[in-house]
């Protein structure tokens, strides 16, 4: 095992093959991904996990933020908005997150598959945030969840800026798996097992595992952000407590000052926030497999 830079490890098999990258701690307080990466690393070190072919990269995205158990380092920059497609053609901006993204980006470019492990600030069932294509499904079949949240119109970042989007821009399969609430690490083992399943499909390790039994998966697309126009936004009762709160056409989901925020379609509220410029996002159910 080679540590290419701080908390970026490369493990190569004896034979040529596919490249898989597992990232945890892109947001430092999201502990499941950190634990999964450390567990896989320990398995490689102990010999319990033998990389036969290809290359495995294990990455802790934001070591400074992991150290202080916060989303980003101080001053705050979001590492998962730090991967514009032309990142490496730009000048460094001097921030820690930009420097980390510049170390990690070349590995994302080389990867056939990238799995970036995240968690939500509010309680949530696990879900996948990625494109809903057949190639993506080949990978995410290993992860328990019944919802896919796609963002083909870049509502989250305004343009391609996340690890999974960056990977897709360079021809790989990029997946962001939201494993539940940030402090809840009960899913570490299940997530690590899913990663082993992906390794087996890519023939990085020898065959051993079976995919998670498939439940019906519902696919959603992000439609818009909740962008208050006043400093005084509050969610209506029953909203803003966790991801995947259903709403129905005509519902008032919150108040922007004294103006009710009404929705004009049925959907789900995801990533609700306590405060900030964006208070959350609205997603709508779509037919699966509308993309190649
Ligand atoms: Zn995150």
What does this structure look like?
By secondary structure, this protein is of the alpha/beta class. The chain has 2 domains: 200 residues, 3-Layer(aba) Sandwich (Aminopeptidase), CATH 3.40.630.10; 65 residues, OB fold (Dihydrolipoamide Acetyltransferase, E2P), CATH 2.40.50. The strands form 2 sheets. A 12-stranded mixed sheet has the order 1-2-4-3-5-8-6-7-9-15-14-11, with helices on both faces. The chain starts with a strand and ends in a 6-residue tail after the last strand. Zinc ion (ZN) binds next to loops.
What CATH architecture of the largest domain do you see? 3-Layer(aba) Sandwich
Strand content: 25-35%
**CATH classification class of the largest domain:** Alpha Beta
Major beta-sheet overview: 12 strands, mixed
The best one-word shape is: globular
- Strand ordering within the main sheet: 1-2-4-3-5-8-6-7-9-15-14-11
CATH superfamily membership of the largest domain: Zn peptidases
Would you tell me the overall average pLDDT? 93
